[in-house]
Amino acid sequence: MIRNLAADVRAFTSNAFLVAGERTVLVDPGNEFDVVSRVRDATGGLDAVVLTHTHSDHVGNVDAVTEAFDVEVRGFDPDNDLVDHAIADGDTVVLGDHDYTALHTPGHKDDHLCFVRADGEVAVVGDLVFSGGGFGRTDLEEGDRPRLVESIEYLLAETDDSLAAMHAGHGPSVEANARQHIEYALRAARSR
């Protein structure tokens, strides 16, 4: 089960997805809210933190979470002070009860990752794409529109019509026709 612990938060934060199961993982702990108590209320503990990327709205709560639960943080860039273990493109990452394939998807930020469940039914996409065909900003440091377009193409190539759910770093999750939202994002990113 994937649950957004930041769903009702009114602060400068990303979504913070708790993926419960055999290996309970917090994907992007968010920023400027008490995610620790929300994790405790939901599951009692964590096995790991996984980062889609290291913009402050996604990682501001990392220190509080690692201190409270004594867990390691996994992300793309092992040279980043927050990252204990690197996740490379193509690596398998266990979130909850399922294996996910990590996709390195720069363009919004150089260390950006998406995760596609092995059965193809679920994707966690960070700030690469959003519900309704939105896509990540490229006007921030490390932003690069052509690379972002290539990354959206990569995500699209690694999914098919079996993609039922997409969980993005901001806004609502998509629970039906998720791949269509990636297609819309690709068209929009190419045209602007």
From TrEMBL:
Residues 13-167 form the Metallo-beta-lactamase domain. The lineage of its organism: Archaea, Methanobacteriati, Methanobacteriota, Stenosarchaea group, Halobacteria. Signal peptide: none annotated. Its EC number is 3.-.-.-. It holds the Pfam family Lactamase_B. Its cofactor is Zn(2+). Transmembrane segments: none annotated. This is MBL fold metallo-hydrolase. GO terms for molecular function: hydrolase activity; metal ion binding. Keywords: Hydrolase, Metal-binding, Zinc. It comes from the Archaea. InterPro entries: MBL_Glyoxalase_II, Metallo-B-lactamas, RibonucZ/Hydroxyglut_hydro.
